[in-house]
Amino acid sequence: MNPKISFWLIPSAAYRPFFQEIINSLSKAHNSPTFEPHVTIYSGDYTADESVDELIETAVKNVSGFMLDIEQLGYTDLYTKTLFVQFKPSAILTQVSETLRHNSAKPSDYVLSPHLSLLYQHLDQAVKEKLATELVIPYSLFPGK
User: Are strands 39-45 and 83-87 parallel, antiparallel or unpaired?
Assistant: First the structure.
């Protein structure tokens, strides 16, 4: 069985503390794990003969930087997507994800849905809905909002 690999986009230093504080606060309030804020951009099988560095370097070769625009706060029944910030589609991020897929030894059927999870926990629907409506993301912190 091949190990799995996931490639993450980590918020810049300017935004990372903001998201980490929300994750930590929700984790404490709901007895759930803490984790580093991230956006999964590709996930699939990994083979020992692949170079992670080369995959990343190729995928971001012509990328100088970009911002993701927030679309909404959402929630699902998936443990790893209990409460999350959904971002609008990004042509640059899609290109990076597709380049990773194309250059992987065993391309997966991973579907990019750029989001940043804020909580991993099984919660009642009403609790998730309440969190999604009460949590405030100050859009003024994010250019383009």
Answer: unpaired
